Amino acid sequence: MAAAASVVVAVGTVTGFVNALDQDGGTDEARPTVTRSPSLQPLPAGPSASPSTTSASPSPSKSSSKPSPKAKATPKAPKTTAAAAPAVSARLYRHNDSQVLDWVRANRSDPRRPLIESRIADQPAAVWFADYTPSTITSRVRAVTSTAAASGRVPVVVPYAIPNRDCGGASQGGAPDLGAYDGWIDKFAAGLGSGEVIVVLEPDSLALIDCLSAGDRARRYASLARAGRVLKAANPRARVYYDAGHSGWNAAAAQAARLRQAGAASAASSDGVFTNVSNFHRTAEEAAYARQVLSALAGPSSLGAVIDTSRNGNGAPAEGEWCDPAGRKLGQAPTLRTGQSRIDAYLWVKLPGESDGCKGAPGTFTPGYAYDLVTGG
Q1: Measuring CA to CA, which residue among 123, 115, 116, 119 is closest to residue 88?
Q2: Is 353 in contact with 120 (CB distance < 8 Å)?
Q3: pLDDT at 22 over 60
Q4: Which GO biological-process labels does this protein carry (predicted)?
Q5: Is 125:15 a contact under the CB 8 Å cutoff?
Q6: Nearest 5 degrees, angle CA 201-CA 118-CA 76?
Q7: Across all residues in the chain, what is the average pLDDT?
Q8: Which helix (H) or strand (E) holds 127?
Q9: Given 97, 131, 324, 356, the catalytic residue
């Protein structure tokens, strides 16, 4: 796969939501308000929950040629045999509101439902916060972390509001400036609570930074370093991971240099790096790449990596195809026990079955695509 810029979407929804109380005691909705790109063009998309609300999340890195959307006439008939569903993590948190769960509840008689439910809907996945809504962000984050803590589970949350997100591309948006972003992060951190939580901090914010001037890069680095410190100070049990792209993108040494400037080598702001968010590279490739990045980063030995395994069961497609490529498959189930040195977790950051924009409308759960990921079709 070409080491091209990773495209992120501007329309989609957070993986799951719950109602929560804000700091002032009033009720607000845990779902983020609509965040739309100024562009009205169809966009590739990432994890989402309910069709009524939207946010953003990364799509895979793409080559210079964009594949044409392909229509799917009719759903596939279920295969008669399938591997048993993998065990669900006893520690990671699965939010109870998502597009896949909505579909499962509304389509009990669909012959694809049992496999989609057991292989995708039952697995824990990340919860994205991609809309710039300072007045409600604390209560919405708290709704997730408090519910997870009450059930003894570890949530995965994704703050995704860095200014000039996606270098002004398909997923442009975020906070209006870094000062506003710093304030938003303060409010985000206030919702983390005191339980264990994994923070996947700003996908693509470091791997995709070439569009910024030297001065703007320096300011983004400083803001991300500050974000890590604020998140960890607010909750010492929070584990914060920084953007390392993926093994088919930037060289490990080059990515480590960016990570170092953003504070990822300091235990005061970082627990390590994340790779492969919304991409397809095999786990072994990502683990090797992550260790190379960590070695070049030269931080404390406690730093580790988390890998998005949601769609990497068959590896990356040929020629850098990125939009719902055929023949992909679910990867290893989310877990905090990888059995690998310096690899802290396999996570589902991108929710499988939510289209990049070719097999379904961008950002929407597409049962045919989900079924293909389950069966490797």
Answers
A1: 123
A2: yes
A3: no
A4: cellulose catabolic process
A5: yes
A6: 105
A7: 82
A8: strand 127-129
A9: 356
Query: How many CB atoms are closer than 10 A to CB 222?
Result: 15
Question: Residue ranges of the alpha helices (H) in 235-282?
Answer: 252-261
pLDDT band (50, 70, 90) for residue 25? very low
> Does residue 177 have an active-site annotation?
no
Domain limits of the chain? Answer: 99-375
Architecture of the domain made up of 99-375: Alpha-Beta Barrel (3.20)
Compute the CA torsion angle 186, 192, 196, 201 (nearest 10 deg).
-50
372 is catalytic: no
Q: What is the mean pLDDT of residues 332-337?
A: 97
Q: What is the arithmetic mean of pLDDT over 166-190?
A: 91
Q: How far apart are CA 370 and CA 364, in angstroms?
A: 11
For residue 283, what pLDDT is reported?
98
Is 184 annotated to bind a ligand? Reply is no
Q: Annotation-wise, does 103 bind a ligand?
A: no
The residue behind tokens 């069966």 is: 375
Amino acid at 72: K
Among residues 97, 204, 271, 344, the one annotated as catalytic is 204
Q: CA-to-CA distance for 97 and 1, rounded, in angstroms?
A: 34
Using 50, 70 and 90 to split pLDDT, how confident is the model at 212? very high
DSSP state of 189: H
Whether the CB-CB separation of 23 and 138 falls below 8 Å is answered with yes
Instruction: Tell me if 279 is assigned to a ligand binding site.
Output: yes
